[in-house]
Amino acid sequence: MDGFSLHANTFVGPAARDELYKLVKYLCRPSIAGKRVTEQEDGRFRVALKTAWRDGQT
After folding, report:
1. Pick from 53, 54, 57, 58: nearest CA to 38
2. How far is CA 8 from CA 21, 35, 42, in A?
3. In this structure, are residues 17 and 9 in contact, taking their beta carbons and an 8 Å threshold?
4. pLDDT value, residue 12
5. CB of 58 within 8 A of CB of 49?
6. What is the model's pLDDT at position 29?
7. Is the dihedral of CA 17, 31, 38, 55 positive or negative?
8. SS3 at position 39
9. C-alpha dihedral (30, 33, 34, 37), degrees to nearest 10
10. Which of 9, 32, 57, 58 could join 53 in a cystine, given CB atoms 3.0 to 4.6 angstroms apart?
């Protein structure tokens, strides 16, 4: 919808504990790595991009 796609058709059987662990680990990961977020002196937060944009912005 509106350019966003989500595929959630995943099934983990009751005996597949390794697969369940992998799924939960994936779901619990942060959307932004903590090391890329820093608090500024004025109380705002800065998020560094993973890779620089074409115009050089980071």
Report:
1. 58
2. 16, 28, 40
3. no
4. 87
5. yes
6. 87
7. positive
8. strand
9. -120
10. 57
| Per-residue confidence (pLDDT) for residue 45, from 0 to 100 | 94
Strands (E), the chain: 37-39, 45-47
Residues, the chain, total?
Answer: 58
Residue 4 corresponds to which amino acid? F
The C-alpha atoms of residue 29 and residue 23 are separated, in whole angstroms, by 10
Encoding tokens for residue 6?
A: 């989500």
What global pTM score does this model have? 0.49
For 21-55, b/e burial (b = at least 16 CB within 10 A) is eeeeeeeeeeeeeeeeeeeeeeeeeeeeeeeeeee
